[in-house]
Every structure is written in C-alpha cells, then in structure tokens.
Specification:
The chain is an alpha+beta fold. It has one domain (about 10-250): Alpha-Beta Plaits (2-Layer Sandwich), CATH 3.30.70.20. Helices cover about 20% and strands about 20% of the residues. Helix 2 runs antiparallel to helix 6. The chain is globular.
Length: about 250
C-alpha cells in the first residue's frame, strides 16, 4: 500500500485546531499597571479532573522522518528547557533520533524515540514512592517532589526513555519543573495538551513539512490518528511485552 501525505487541512489534528482557536480568541488581561498577560481558554478547567475518556497517543511515519532532521529534538529541548552539557551519554534528552538498520539488507531508517506512554508502564510498577504515575488520559509523568532518584524506573523502561539529572539547574521553565537528583522523561508537552494544544515536537515536524508525527485521541474513532491507524496500520515497539504503548510507528 503506497503512502500519501495527508491534505494540508488534514495535517492539523483536532487538538491543534483547539490550540489555534484558543490562541486567536485570547483575551488581554491587566494584572497590574503596565503588566499585561495573554489568557487563552483552556481545554478543561484547572479543577476539572482528567478522565479516561481520552487516551493521548502519537503515530510516527518513519518513511517521512528525514535522517538529517532533528527539528523534533530541538523543539523539545527548547520547549522544556533542556540544556546539554556535551555528554550525550548522560545529558537529558526527552526525545532522541535512532537509526535502525536491517542487518540482512543493510537498509536503514531514522525514527524518533521517546517515552512510549504505555497503558501498563513498567516504570510505574517499580517506583517505590509513586513518583512515576500514569494519568487517566494515558500520559505518563514523574512527580519531582516525591522522586528519590533511585532510578528503578530507568532500569525497568524497555525503551531507555528516561534521564537522570546530574547537574544543578537554572532558568527552568515554569511548566516543566526539573530537579537535580530526579528522573525525567517526555511528558507529551502535557502543559500544551491541557491547554488544547499539541506537543512541541509535532508542531516542529509540521513546520518542516515532513508531517511525520500525528498526535491525537486514540479513544476517539473519528480522530485523525485513529483513522490512520485503522486504515494504514502501525507497529508498537516491543509489543510482545504487553505494555501497550501509546506511540505507534508506521513503516518499521
């Protein structure tokens, strides 16, 4: 089955439409003389609980992922305040590019790897303090206030998707709190999602024109991601482990 890129109006999922609508409808609020804030409508009220009606997920078209493109990685770092220290083996990286190679044919393919936001996350199972947890909508997070840095979750993760913070941190993003001695990983830009938006990596990929990432509600049969999975199919990495990842890959 040949793959065709979606029409331009199809590349923006329902969540992105809400984000754009909210941004255009933002109201200018004065909080003090000379101080103005932009206030956009949220997808849900702050005191409204997250429910399992929605399960957020992502579809990755590996055939559209350019080997030399790192827009998703750069966007993630910028959005969440991740600063490298020249040590790739220990620097925090919530999303990274992998190069897969078929040893029989030599064929290679590039793809982004991040927290897979599993339905049954091993990281949550082994956490002794409950710092690693899964929201009702499928997003797996780490509570930095209760994380003791034992790194059990890092050992349990089949995808090597978690990082340990070794250094003192400065200039943190308010929406992405981090702390020395704690573990962290991709949050699917939960602050954006809760405001009706899409993850920074998805937005950056759209801006490059590659359209390799589709984000949306896996529980909604009419969402773009559900329709693509239904008609084209996709693969979950290490599906044999029974974790049921929320990240699906097309073309591997």
């Amino acid at each position: 089955m040949s793959e065709q890129k979606p029409l331009p109006n199809e590349t923006i999922d329902e969540s992105r439409r809400r984000w754009l609508k909210g941004s255009s409808a933002a109201a200018l609020v004065t909080v003090a003389p000379g101080v103005l804030l932009w206030q956009a409508p949220l997808a849900r009220e702050a005191d409204e609980p997250v429910t399992s009606k929605v399960r957020w997920g992502m579809l990755v078209y590996t055939t559209r992922c350019n080997d030399n493109c790192s827009a998703c990685v750069s966007a993630c770092a910028s959005e969440n305040g991740l600063t490298g220290h020249g040590r790739p083996e220990t620097d925090a990286q919530w999303i990274r590019k992998l190069m897969l190679r078929n040893p029989e044919t030599g064929h290679t393919r590039s793809l982004p790897m991040m927290c897979q936001h599993c339905e049954h996350p091993p990281c949550v199972d082994v956490c002794p303090t409950g710092a690693s947890f899964k929201r009702a909508d499928g997003i797996v997070l780490v509570d930095k206030h209760t994380c003791i840095g034992c790194r059990y979750c890092m050992m349990a993760c089949p995808y090597k998707a978690r990082s340990f913070i070794h250094e003192d941190l400065t200039d943190q993003k308010p929406h992405a709190p981090r702390g020395k001695g704690t573990v962290e990983s991709c949050t699917l830009c939960v602050h954006r999602v809760d405001a009706g938006g899409i993850p920074a990596c998805v937005e950056a990929c759209e801006n490059t024109g590659h359209q390799a990432l589709v984000f949306g509600d896996l529980n909604d049969p009419e969402s773009l991601i559900s329709r693509k999975l239904r008609t084209l199919g996709a693969t979950q990495i290490r599906a044999d482990l029974g974790t049921n990842p929320g990240i699906h890959y097309r073309g591997i």
